[in-house]
TrEMBL record:
Alphabetic keyword roster: Heme, Iron, Metal-binding
Organism the protein comes from: Massilia suwonensis
Highest taxon of the lineage: Bacteria
Iron keyword on record: yes
Name used for this protein in its record: C-type cytochrome
PANTHER family, sorted: BLL4483 PROTEIN (PTHR33751:SF11), CBB3-TYPE CYTOCHROME C OXIDASE SUBUNIT FIXP (PTHR33751)
Gene3D superfamilies (UniProt xref): Cytochrome c-like domain
SUPFAM superfamilies: Cytochrome c (SSF46626)
Domain Cytochrome c: 108-198
Length: 223
C-alpha cells in the first residue's frame, strides 16, 4: 500500500460526521449538553426555547445588535440559513431542567416581583410579564422565550443590557421600552421572583393570532 493511500483512508475514517450535533459542539461548552444550561453559571438554557426567538438572538449576536464578544466572534460569518438550523436544533431539545440555586432575596422583594410579573406596573403603563411570556412563563411561539430556569443575576443583567443599549431587538424594541421604565428596585424584584420559581419542562405555547400589549418588532402582530 502506498503511504498516500493509507493517509487518505485514515483521513476519511477520522473525519467528523457532518451532523447538527457536531456543528453546535462549540455551544455546549457554555450552554451545556443539548443546551440544557449549566449549574451556577451565567449562561442560560437554550433547549426548548422558540425557534424564532433563538434565531433572532443568533442574528442579533452576529450583526452586533446584541453585544457579547465570544458570541459575536463565533457567529460573525454564519449565514441566516445556518443560524436557523441551529435555532431549530436547540428548540427541539428537551433535556431535564436543572435545579435553580437558592435566591438570596427577602419575602418582601419576591412579593414585589410577583406583583410586577403577574400584574404589571399600571402607574407606568407596563404590562405584566405573563401577558407576553405566557401564564406559566414558558414562552409563546414563534418568538417569545420562557423565563423559568434563569438565574436572578442573568435576568437583571439582560434587563440592564436592554436599558443601556447593549442588547437591542428589531424596532419597535418593546423590551427596551419596558426595561428602561423599570426602576432598579423593580428590576431586582422581578429578577428575584423569576429565579425563585420552580423549573419545569413546559414548552412554549402556540399562539393563534394573539395580540400583544406592546408592538414588538421581533414578534409579528396579527392584522
Amino acid at each position: 500500500m502506498y503511504p498516500a493511500a493509507g493517509l487518505a483512508q485514515t483521513g476519511a475514517a477520522d473525519r467528523i460526521p457532518d451532523t447538527m450535533e457536531a456543528r453546535v459542539a462549540a455551544c455546549i461548552g457554555c450552554h451545556g449538553p443539548a443546551g440544557r444550561g449549566v449549574e451556577n453559571v451565567y449562561f442560560p438554557r437554550l433547549a426548548g426555547k422558540p425557534t424564532g426567538y433563538l434565531y433572532n438572538q443568533l442574528v442579533a449576536f452576529r450583526d452586533g445588535r446584541r453585544k457579547y464578544v465570544p458570541m459575536n466572534y463565533l457567529l460573525a460569518y454564519l449565514p441566516d440559513a445556518y443560524l436557523y438550523k441551529m435555532a431549530e436544533h436547540f428548540a427541539a431539545q428537551n433535556p431535564p431542567p436543572l435545579a435553580q440555586p437558592r435566591v438570596n432575596a427577602s419575602a418582601t422583594q419576591i412579593s414585589a416581583g410577583q406583583r410586577i410579573v403577574t400584574q404589571g406596573v399600571p402607574a407606568k403603563r407596563l404590562p405584566a410579564c405573563v401577558t407576553c411570556h405566557g401564564a406559566d412563563l414558558a414562552g409563546l411561539e414563534p418568538g417569545i422565550p420562557g423565563l423559568l430556569g434563569l438565574r436572578a443575576d442573568y435576568v437583571s443583567a439582560q434587563l440592564g443590557a436592554w436599558r443601556y443599549g447593549v442588547r437591542t431587538a428589531i424596532a419597535p424594541d418593546c423590551m427596551q421600552v419596558i426595561a428602561s421604565s423599570l426602576s432598579e428596585p423593580e428590576v431586582a424584584a422581578v429578577s428575584a421572583y423569576l429565579a425563585s420559581l420552580p423549573v419545569t419542562n413546559a414548552r412554549p405555547a402556540r399562539t393563534a393570532g394573539a395580540r400583544l400589549p406592546l408592538a414588538c418588532g421581533s414578534q409579528p402582530q396579527p392584522k
